[in-house]
Amino acid sequence: MSGFDQLRLEGVGRRFGTADALADLDLTIERGEFIALLGPSGCGKSTALNCLAGLLPLTAGSIWQDDQRIDTLPPEKRGFGMVFQNYALFPHLTVRDNIAFGLRMRRLPKDEVRRRTEAAIEMVRLAEHASKLPGQLSGGQQQRVAIARATVLEPSLVLMDEPLSNLDAKLRLEMRTEIRRLHQSLGLTTVYVTHDQEEALSMADRLVVMRLGRVQQIGTPEEVHTKPATWHVADFMGYRNLLPVSATRVEGDAVTVPLGETTVNGVAQGEMNAGDEVVAAVRPEDVRLGSADVAGLKGRIEVVEYQGRELAVEVALPDGVRLHARTDRKVEPGEQVAITITPGRLLVYPSGDPADRPAAELATAGLAV
Amino acid sequence: MSGFDQLRLEGVGRRFGTADALADLDLTIERGEFIALLGPSGCGKSTALNCLAGLLPLTAGSIWQDDQRIDTLPPEKRGFGMVFQNYALFPHLTVRDNIAFGLRMRRLPKDEVRRRTEAAIEMVRLAEHASKLPGQLSGGQQQRVAIARATVLEPSLVLMDEPLSNLDAKLRLEMRTEIRRLHQSLGLTTVYVTHDQEEALSMADRLVVMRLGRVQQIGTPEEVHTKPATWHVADFMGYRNLLPVSATRVEGDAVTVPLGETTVNGVAQGEMNAGDEVVAAVRPEDVRLGSADVAGLKGRIEVVEYQGRELAVEVALPDGVRLHARTDRKVEPGEQVAITITPGRLLVYPSGDPADRPAAELATAGLAV
Amino acid sequence: APTAGKPAADTTGDVPDKPAKAVSLNILDVAGDLQLTQGMIDEFVKQHSDVISKVTYSKAPAPELSGKIKAQQNANRVDIDLVLTGTDGLSAGTQQGLWNELLPKYADRLPGMKDYLPPAQKMQELAGNSGVTVTYYPSGPLLEYLPAKVAKPPANADELLAYAKANKGKVMYARPSNSGPGRTFLMGLPYILGDKDPKDPINGWDKTWAYLKELNQYVDYYPSGTADTMKALANGSSNIIVSTTGWDINPRVLGTVPKEAAITTLKGFHWVTDAHYAVVPKGVSTDKQAAILQLLQFMLTPEQQAKAYDKGYFYPGPAIKGVELSQAPQESQDAIKDFGRAEYDKLIADNPTEVPLDAKSLVAAFDKWDREVGGSKVKSS
Amino acid sequence: MIFFFVNLAGVVGSVLVSSFGRRWFDTWLPSGFTTDWYGDAWREFGLLHVITVTLIASALVVVLSVLIGAPAAYVLARQNFPGKRLVYLTFLLPILMPPITYGIPLATVLYKFGFAGHLSGVVLANLVPSVPFVILTMTPFIEQVDPRIESAARMLGAGTRAIFLKILTPLLVPGLLASAILVLVRTVGMFELTFLTAGPDSQTLVVALYYSMSAAGIRAQQSVDAMAIIYTSMMLVLLVVALRFVNPTQLVARVKEEPE
Amino acid sequence: MSTTTSSGPANSGPANSGPANSGPAGSGPAGSGPAGSGLAGSGQALNWRHRLAERGVDRRLWLLLPATVFVLVLFIYPFLYGLSLSFQPMNGGGVLANYSKFFSDAYQRDTIATTLKIALPAALLNVLAAVPIAFRMRGRFRGKRLMTTLLVVPITLGTVLTAQGLLNFLGPTGWFNRVLMGLHLTEGPVRLTNNYWGVFFSLIITGFPFAFLLVLSYLSGIDPTLERAAATLGASRSQRFRRITLPLLAPGLATTFLLTFVLAFSVFPSAVLVGNPAGSTRVISLAAYQAAYEQYDYSYASAIAMIMGAVELVVVAIVLVWRARLYTGSTGGKG
Ligand SMILES: Nc1ncnc2c1ncn2[C@@H]1O[C@H](COP(=O)(O)OP(=O)(O)OP(=O)(O)O)[C@@H](O)[C@H]1O
Ligand SMILES: Nc1ncnc2c1ncn2[C@@H]1O[C@H](COP(=O)(O)OP(=O)(O)OP(=O)(O)O)[C@@H](O)[C@H]1O
Ligand SMILES: [Mg+2]
Ligand SMILES: [Mg+2]
User: Fold this and answer.
1) Among B50, B186, C26, D101, which one is most buried in terms of CB atoms within 10 A?
2) What pLDDT score does E57 carry?
3) CA dihedral angle for residue D227, residue D228, residue D233, residue D236, rounded to 10 degrees
4) Where is there biased composition of kind Low complexity (chain E) (predicted)?
């Protein structure tokens, strides 16, 4: 129940039948840390969380809380709190009773239960729904109940499985701040699963990026954001333009790659030589539109999407490659534009296996009907 | 089954007991339109969708498809497709059979069923999970099944209830494009519920912004984004800084309001006079940090959040008001900074009812523990 | 399939001598009488297939019978043509007017009835005008015991009481309403004890009720079937049980009771006789009635009656005079040779016979027994 | 639980042994074994025919009562409407009321319309308590199914029939099975209504069994035991067949399996 | 088959046919759309429909039809007949003579208490015992199928076999007493048949599997994630059971209890066969039976049976009122 200094996962794995949903997870969580597990759908985030909570027995590895091995303890003995991806609210209890449940289980005095419950209800802004049953709440309201239910206990470790995914943007921002604040003021340790990089970046002290059940990179938000370890991580972190090309020239970590009938310069993210097959990655935000009369990279606008302050555009280069770019100018499909890539923001990754390369985004596969 | 030219909702309402979950919804949907219902959690978006689908009988109003009244038809006779907020997959059918269900109900030839099903599975990238049961899928995978299941039918109207909320950012972007593409290539008419303004802005032809069961504003993304009709809509559309103040000076639509021991200029969004209580609204993106030596609005940085390319900061003004701002400079909490507000981006709303005003964000209420 | 449109055959008119064409009969047995008579019926069908082409038998417990027939008659759709029943079912039906009156209208078609044994004749009188006695036996009450356990069986009522007192729980009889021997014992006691009016259980049985209540103190429980008392005797949990001729012989043949079990009677006992009757529900077509009358007469011939010896099931069984065991089928003769008792001939010849209580009085007696004897066990235990 | 099983085995075993016993007095086991009792029972009641009738009748009752009862259970589980309590009471009564109160008039009605005296009468009469029974057992099962799943099917064009066949039925298999088994047991064991409406060709096993047990006359204990064993074996076969095809917990468990 | 489904969506009910016709017709001439005068005509019907919607009346109610018709035709008429019969005493004497006869006779009146004394504990025990066992049968383990089958098998025994078996097994010279005496636990045989206990055991044997089967099925409909959520909130195994599983199971338990109770209440054959039908197990159905089939007083029998039904109804009503206060929604197991 009481806090710990370190929580160590050693070679943790979970297999369903013949498929590894999670493999070889090594991770040390320091007291007070806020860790985000990040990765695409189905990569094993929930599985990892469930293993940590004790809800899924491990099929490999062990978990240590300081010197105590805890992967053999049942969930209720670990004293962790958890917010489930699908809420898992008790359908027969009111919002208030759902939230008070854990406190009652701890046999706290009635008074305290009431006080803390009300405070938590206040926090998630459900005061007027406190006496409803979960079935009468909207999806977002349900999720807020789930958050309040887990955090009201001030557990030594809080596990959260995409707790904000059903909230609206405004509330999501507010709850983010709130969760962060709770984390700090209660001295919690938090493991937070999300597929939203922005959320992960803004909340976590450290990110664990996963793919196909395996860790790809562990690092601070800045590390992961600016220096993704592999092109897969880059892909996931918003480097939406992924171009399988051959390096033209390599000098130290400066690489030149061909693009749209010209060449551009990038930063090498690993060992590579001229002529190697590589993957160039750049975020749409770092691909900006100028006007067409400037020399250099050029293309034709294909798709324009309104995104509030900026427009998201897709530009077709002369060689057929499509680039995602941003602009704050009003542009129209069909327009010819010049394209600049923010210097230093084009990352170039070695790509070993030929099967392991992104598909050139020539034409997105539609639904054949 | 076949298409229609217009779908009209007239005074549609739905009451649960004594509470109106939805009231007085008037909306005309043109064939081929992509409408987004947008609003905070619990505002009645899902209720509206269910009424349209025929899953909830109306308690007021009527729905017309061209000249035919359809609110009396059962859902299966309306020929609409729907993606549910909580997936609502058939737990006893495999992914493939879930997707094929609707086609089978239409008694299409076996061949066609198979072909279209496989194409849809391909589209949502679940080929390797096609024979699994929903219970064995991750949350995101389930949601993709739900999308495929509804769109494979090419219904005359597709209703989607936050279909992307459980997907990771990358996939969400892709599915957005995919849904838009489907919408266009199949000539669908789509009503799309989301709480994500960005999603709504980038996908929809028209937005319907709701609050407490009532429509607040109907308009194109640009209208809603740049000219929210009320401060509530502004609040929801990302005008995170909402300041209850008294107008100092009003000239035409130019209003001066006091802020942090100085005054700033804004654009009036309604009738108002000097001395009136008003609400000033501005997005964090339009509040930028300069360095402290520039004259004008000043404040002290309180909180800094990493957000990838930019930092999100909270700045305390001398009078205690907090402003959310953005910067791409490295700043530290405690630093004194100058603040500029992008001209023309501060909107000022009349605020009638004193009860109906945003709380000045002096100190965010934490969880009392 | 439902036969809603079936034209109703004549059911009330004159009964012809012979059915227009061979009929098929549904016979319902509620008394276990087919055990004795099925052979006779099958024989008739074999010999007179021009009268009866086919017989279906069904069996059921007696009590529900009248309800079923009533339901059929209310709906004008009677599909039970002949019922074989004991006194209880017969009088229940008579009370409710379910049966066709066969007598004296068709007495001339049933000449066999003139040959009834005297006690069978008395049973026939009890039956009134609807039932025809087909089998008869003198019944009991008898006491049955294992000589190995009871060296000196009680010879009179007092000795039985004394034995019960000395051997608590070792004397047993079944709840009278569920057991033939039980009710025979109940009806026989007033004669043994010399009660005022053996036919009036409410007002005339003072001694009987006092006796049963006293005996009750030494009885552990009353099983709800004769079979249980037989089992108790066989496995030694009981030493003396009440019985009848049939229940004495047949279970030993079947092997539920050891062969060496013996019987005795109490001083001054009268046989309380029993019989099975054939009755025809109202609503049966005249053609079928004709066939039934022929069948019944056939059954009352000595050759056929001899089959009623069976394996001592209803010993002796035949209702008419002059039927010898030697006329019975060989199997039957063998069983009775092995398990029958020579002393029966003498007991039957030497002791008076009485008809049982009429249905109403019997029910009253059961009720009183339940309330005052059987039911009192609750309070005392 | 062990105790329960041991005693159960004792109860069943003693009947089984007894039904094969030649004579069984005050000993641990009978003094000899024989199958005569079965042969006798078989012949005496023409059991082959009786068992066939029983099987057909009970199968019909089960199927019909589920077909009639399940939709009603569905409405009662899903919907609140004025008069629901009255409807509920109407469905409760046939279970509460002993057949004595309505058996005879019911039989009269059935005879009047020409149903009784055949298999159809037996089936119809047995449906009277069975339909409400299905309704009562099924209601909570239906309540457990998430209505959104149904909504989803509707949106995909499934009409009421398709929803019942394609969605509810598979999800309700445990419930259907449970109530079908219970109805089956009740029907096979329902003496009174069956007797009142059965014709000579449509006697069921329970009528024969009741007869052998409680009719007047002498009957060897073992032969009753044999009848009871026959009765039980038949039920057992039905049950095992049912469980073979669907395990009561399998379907839902497959959907949301607990790890381990 | 056709009866159940054709009456569903095919016939649109009266709630729906009215407005469906008047809607388009009303808006036709106006041209300006349904906001015109056309709507006023159908306004009445509309309001009516909306009000019905608020109360949950819609076409799905048609699904009730087959069962309702069935029960009305085949049950209500015979039942009313029986009811009226009970007010026509065979021996004359006032409409309520049968009822007053029953209640003024302690011997008859006591059957109610006797029956309740047997049926309530038996039903309760069956349900209570079924819950933990079913609970344990939920997970996956080897031999589960066999265990389930074994537990359900007694359902096939039937009253007669149970009765015979109990008499054989628990009787004075049965195996049970032989073992007891062999172990010198008792001196003489223990009387377990032909009294209260005999009936009680037979009700357990026939009722338990029944309860078990129902409870197991109800239990399988509860989403196991809920229990896991409770575990992370610190609830121990027993707390999870008491606070989460049990309340979600309660409506099912109520139904199970009702059904076993009703079965136990009408215990008739076993009361006679293994009980003491004249005394401690003289249950009310026996009284009705005697009236009907020994005294052939159907009127009195109907009256007793009506009383029997009424007593059951009281118990059922109490349980149902309690059940109505429970949560009875989706338990997430299939969503
Ligand atoms: N019970 C199970 N049986 C078989 N496979 C399973 C089971 N549970 C999960 N999986 C598989 O394990 C993989 C990882 O699942 P998990 O739920 O951990 O994903 P996730 O990262 O949480 O995804 P999401 O963001 O979509 O929730 C998925 O491919 C899923 O299909
Ligand atoms: N069955 C019901 N009974 C009572 N109230 C209900 C019911 N269903 C919904 N509500 C209430 O109606 C309001 C609107 O609910 P709705 O589900 O339409 O919200 P929403 O806009 O979809 O929210 P979210 O984005 O969180 O899903 C909510 O306040 C909710 O609590
Ligand atoms: Mg997950
Ligand atoms: Mg919603």
Assistant:
1) D101
2) 62
3) 150
4) 1-24
pLDDT tens across E142-174, in order? Answer: 666 677 777 777 777 767 777 777 777 777 666
Size of interface B-D (CB pairs under 8 A): 75
**B291 class by beta-carbon count within 10 Å (0-12 exposed, 13-18 middle, 19+ buried):** exposed
pLDDT in tens, E195-208: 788 888 888 888 88
Residue E149 lies in a domain: yes
For residue E221, the enclosing domain spans 71-324
Residues of chain B positioned with their CB less than 8 A from the CB of A312:
202
B305-350 pLDDT, tens digit each: 877 778 888 888 888 888 899 888 888 888 888 888 888 889 999 8
Q: Residue C234 and residue D113: Cβ atoms within 8 Å? A: no
Q: How far is CA A152 from CA A82, A96, A164, A180, in A?
A: 11, 12, 17, 14
The structural domains of chain A, with segments of one domain joined by +, span 6-226, 239-352
| Burial class for C268, CB neighbours closer than 10 Å (0-12, 13-18, 19+) | middle
The stretches in chain A having pLDDT less than 50 are 1, 362-369
Residue A192: beta bridge partners?
A36, A160
What is the CATH architecture of B239-352?
Beta Barrel (2.40)
Q: What share of chain C is helix, strand, coil (3-state, %, to 5)?
A: 45, 15, 40
What's the number of domains chain E is made of?
1
pLDDT averaged per 10 residues, chain D (length 260) = 68 70 61 68 71 84 88 84 80 78 77 74 85 84 81 81 83 81 79 75 72 61 74 79 59 37
Task: Report which DSSP code applies to D118.
Answer: S
Q: How far does the CA of residue E213 sit from the closest CA of chain A (Å)? A: 24
Q: Encoding tokens for residue B181?
A: 């593409």
A203 neighbors A34 (Cβ within 8 angstroms)? yes
Q: Is A151:A81 a contact under the CB 8 Å cutoff?
A: yes
Contact between A186 and B137 using a beta-carbon 8 Å cutoff: no
Q: Which ligand is nearest to the CA of B143?
A: 1
SS3 per-residue string spanning C157-182 = HHHHHHHHHHCCCCEECCCHHHCHHH
Distance (Å) from the C-alpha of residue E62 to the closest C-alpha of chain C? 29
CATH code of domain A6-226: 3.40.50.300
Label residue C303 left, alpha or beta by phi (over 0 means left) and psi (-120 to 50 means alpha): alpha
Instruction: For B70, name the nearest residue in chain E, comparing CA atoms only.
Output: E20
Task: Please give the pLDDT value at position D2.
Answer: 65
Task: Give residues 258 to 297 of E whose Cβ lies within 8 Å of C.
Answer: 272-273, 275-280, 282, 289-290, 292-296
